[in-house]
Amino acid sequence: MNKKEIKIINDKFNKLYEQSQATIIGKFILKFTECETINLIKKLGLKRSSRTIDVGCGIGRTLRMFRNNQFFNSIGIDNSKNAIRLCERNGLRRNKDVFLINAKKTPFSDNEFDLVFEEGLLEHFKNFQPFIDEMCRISKKYVVLIQPNKFSLAHKLMDRFTNDINIKEIPYEIHDFCEAFRINNFKLKSLKNGFLNIFWILVFERLGNKNVV
User: Fold this and answer.
1) Range of the domain at 93
2) Which residue among 54, 102, 107, 200 is least packed, with the fewest CB closer than 10 Å?
3) Strands 98-100 and 74-78: what pairing?
4) Whether the Cβ atoms of residue 47 and residue 73 lie closer than 8 Å to each other
5) In this structure, is residue 212 part of a structural domain?
6) Is residue 213 part of a domain?
7) Which of 58, 115, 44 is nearest to 92 (CA)?
8) Coil, strand or helix at 146
9) Mean per-residue pLDDT, 57-76
10) What's the pLDDT score for residue 157?
11) How far is residue 118 CA from its own chain's centroid?
């Protein structure tokens, strides 16, 4: 995916969410996703002081979710200047809360974050391995992904009703992610089917920690 294609995707997402053009169903799914995600993260037993990062933070929706649930030691990164500007418009501070950084190669130290989070990024790339390699490198323990289940009936119906958005998503399967994490010594700890099986919430844990399934 070249820079022009990435800009087109960013512009469409910005228009959809920033200008509140998501459908009523779309807004409900987003809210449901947030509730499911934060409940799952709380079950991991992370402390409120745990260092967390949202990779591909977009306009800062997930980062605000973290902050609203007292995970204040959290930051977001994105490779889009426009996304960072929109984060600022939404009350987040550049180079304090959000940073303009390429997710394939970040300046962070190994094992710097207790939780690395990603939603809405990997499915747009034919080769997502470099992103996962970097997320695993900077994670001390957990990486959480939210990925669309393109094979579910509900998602296929949703795509038909939102085809005007026309944002290409590659239909990855769960084993695609498991293999990419296995290479980095991470294993799938838990999997949750989201609203009507439209998306998956996958929790990967670094091997060597307890309670890995």
Assistant:
1) 3-206
2) 107
3) parallel
4) no
5) no
6) no
7) 58
8) strand
9) 93
10) 74
11) 2
